[in-house]
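Sync notes, pocket subgroup
Present: LS, DG
LS reminded everyone that the earlier model was apo-only. Rerun requested with 0O2 included. Inputs:
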Amino acid sequence: MNDNENNSNELSLEEMETGLELLGAQNTLSDFIDILDERTVVVREFFANYRCAAYETETKFKVLNERFSVRYDSNPIEAIKVRIKSPESILKKMDRKNIEISLQSIEENIRDIAGVRVICSFIDDIYKIADYFLAQDDVELIEVRDYIKNPKATGYRSLHLIVRTPIFTEKGKKMMFVEVQLRTIAMDFWASLEHKLRYKKNLPDELVREIGDELTDCAYASAELDKRMQLARDKMEMRKK
Ligand code: 0O2
């Protein structure tokens, strides 16, 4: 909303002050604003920690890509994307998993607030990059979900790693959960389009089913494409030796 718009639902400072007095509040308006600010700072710090963890992890992959380019004369990583789960998406997940609503409980139970997506050219590169990443002594592996070897029913493929990695705050070292999703360009292309189509609203059930089947077929086709590209690369590598 435009700042200049006059919103009749908003209270002026004087009205808020009078309201607090009427409620018999002990705090002055400035105390009240301080309390709100403190809470906001805690929440901002909470999300900032995840952003830092995602940036630290992103840097690790950038560095790995650089090392590979020197050593093997190739860049296995095409792109890296960082995302922080939205509060709305966190709340939905908490509801689905029946998790108590508190920052501590979110921190302990939701492990994909910081997400780093690494897009590689070839399937082999995914496993190679994952191995080098996990070999770093400040990366603690919590869980691997290999949706490349075992695709989801939708056809979704990616290698998911849940790790814990440190960030360094003014208060000291803090271990943070990060979810890393490694995929090929074809896997990413499919997942991005599928995500857009799957969440289109107000479609009749019949059409949703039909599109779902079509998308699963596309996933098989894109997996086939990945295999053929890998084979082509293997042939070239053999030739070089
Ligand atoms: P967003 O917007 O990326 O946050 P868990 O509670 O961890 O056991 P969860 O979170 O369902 O269960 O874990 P899963 O299925 O291993 O991985 C979830 C993430 O993988 C999703 O994040 C997607 O990013 C991706 N994903 C999984 N299945 C599919 C799929 O069928 N299609 C697409 N396009 N992506 C998929 P979020 O939390 O759903 O969303």
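DG: Confidence is low (pLDDT under 50) at residues 1-9.
LS: The chain is about 55% helix and 20% strand.
Action: DG to write up.
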